[in-house]
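Protein Entry — a single chain follows
Fields — amino acid sequence, structure tokens
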Amino acid sequence: MTRALVLGGGGMTGIAWEFGILGGLARAGVTVSDADVIVGTSAGSVVGTVVAAGISLEDAVLAQRGPSSGAAAVDGAPAVDIAPAMAAFALLADRSRPRSEIMAEIGAMALATPTGDEGVHIARLAAQLPVADWPDRDLRITAVDTDGGTPAVFDRAAGVPLPLAVAASCAVPCVFPPITIDGRRYMDGGVRSGTNADLAAGAGALLVVAPVGGLIRPLIDREIAASGAARSLVVEPDEEALEAIGPNVLDPSRRAAAAEAGLRQGAALADAVRAVWL
């Protein structure tokens, strides 16, 4: 049976919470790092890379609590203004227009908004990765082409350097600069979907870890149905985790609390995940 782990977008706090969820599950004896397929979107592309590289989840959680080589780029940094991104993503709620048209509009907005040097964004994301090369795993990282809003999926066969793929997936529109890959500019994979769970089509068991799941649950449910998974489970933050994450997912000061909330929630969900995964 093919098992797929889908790790959704959710900013800096989403990275921390996802590491907490996976770490809490592992402490409770449920290891999902052995997934046959890993789909990472935005925050999930960072977490997915760490999982695919076989890095200790305990170390990953510890990195969210204080200074470390992987978190040095965000430790002590102020919260990023998330309002421009929220305005861009809010356009996706308009059901009167084709989603592809809205994605193209967001791409144009991302290109037109002054967001700094893309090299800085790439370096910031690369500092959070334990490896520079693609792991020998089926890791799928999502992004969206700003020109027309066309979705993209990068893997080790795509010929795209891993740090560029992750930086593109994490290029939150109107907040961080789109990333140039082979002459094209790419933005956050979350513009297509906060999870992109349908990219795990054919999986027998599907676990979706979604920091923003409560906001897009109908979309996730449609994606799971499209995947054809025989067994599935969606993990999204509970009330305590939402409080720990706070209103700004790009606030690095919330990482430690988000990770702790994930650890608690992951342990509590062990039996439910075990029923789907094992």
Observations:
- Residues 11-27 form the longest helix (17 residues).
- The beta strands are 3-7, 37-41, 138-145, 151-154, 179-181, 184-188, 205-209, 231-235.
- The two ends are 10 Å apart (CA to CA).
